[in-house]
Structure formats: structure tokens, C-alpha cells
Request: fold
Amino acid sequence: MKRINSFIAFLFLSTTMTAQTPDALFDQGNKAYNLGAYQEAISSYELVLKAEVHSSELYFNLANAYYRLGEVGESVFYFEKAKLLDPENKEILTNLQFAQNMSLDAIEVLPKSFFDQVIETITSGFSIANWALILIGIAWLLSLLFVLYLFNSNTVWKRLYFSVFWLVTVIFLALFTLTYTKDKQLQVERSGIIFEAQINIWGEPNERSEVLFELHEGTKVSVTDSLESWRKIKIANGSEGWVTASSLRMLN
Reply:
């Protein structure tokens, strides 16, 4: 009888543990974080990730917990993941800067071209999905203006609708072009975080080639090419080279 009762208790506890919802696990992680139990908080947050639940808040809290433990690579990685979902969140950007300051690599950012700066300035206010909704809204407005132009007999109003229609069309085409360009850039651009304390950057995809420079844990890189177990990377100052795939964790 004792064995049966023990087995029933074990099943009850197992069911209770596995039945925890992502929200409950997230709250559990927050409580552990507030108590300074950062490793316990990380365990709870990672269980939420295993449930295929993703949010900027989850990544942000997970990054903060790793930051408290001095885990540079993990901290930068999850701050960057949070930034992808909420690119204009000032708290995420500030904490990401703090985490990047823990890295040993101080890389001067290569200046962007004027066109890239224009795209960044205009499109940074919203995500690509939100810009798509805005463009759909403008398309509906264009349809309404066209209908009003066709079915209005007043010459003054027809001219007004005609002028506004073409003005809105120009705005629509400009925003569509910028959004499309930004979306293509995001599709091509694949980023990753260095996850080893120190790695060599090689001139070719083999360790017999010249070592060009070194990078350290927590540095963000762009992946521009791949060959078997090697990845060609580019850093913010424009320098390029090859690293082993195992030394990177990809953001997208």
C-alpha cells in the first residue's frame, strides 16, 4: 500500500510540474530573479522557451539574469533577441549596451551610406509587419480617393481628389520601396554572437591560413558566407574573416 501511495504521489507531483503554464513559469522566473536566484530564474525562463513561447519580455529577463551571472555571450545573445522583437525599446537598448561593454572587443562601427541612413531613419519606427499594415491602410485610402473622384460631379472636388490621390500614391510608392529594401536587407543579413572566450579569425576556411585578428565572447557578427563547418563573418568596422560554426550562435 505504501508503494502504491508513493507511486500516486510521484505521478501527482510529475503532473503538477509538467502542467505548469508558460505564464506560471514566467512568473516563477521573475520571483526567483527578484530574490537573486538568477540560475533558478534562468531555468524557469528556458522552460518557457521550450514551450515555444517567445516574447521580448522573456528574452529581456533572461538576458538580465545571465548579465547578473557575468555570462557575456548569453546576455548579449538574449538582449539581441529581445531587440529583434522590440527594436525601439530604450530599456532593451540600454541594457544591451551594458552587456556589450563586458565584451573585450571595442569595435568602431563603419559609417552607413546616406541611403542606408535614410532607410534606417524612416523604417526604424515600426517593424516590417507594422509597415505592411500601414501600406495596406494607404492602399485602401487610395481606393477610396479613386472612387470619390469617379463618382463626384463637382469639378473642384474632382480636382482635389485627383491631386490628393497622386500625392498619396507618391508617398505609398516611397514607403513601399523603403520597406521592401529594408525587408530584403533583413532577409540577407544573418547575425550571430561569438560564444567562445577567444577565437581566431582566419583568412581562409582552414586553420593553415593566416590569423587576421581575434574576437571575444559576446561580439556580434554578420555571417556572409558558409563552407561546410566554417562561416565567413563581417564585424561592424568592415573587417572580414572565417570562423568555425561551433563558435557562433545564430540570432536569425
In short: The longest strand covers residues 220-227. The chain is about 60% helix and 15% strand. The domain at 2-101 is CATH 1.25.40.10 (Serine Threonine Protein Phosphatase 5, Tetratricopeptide repeat).
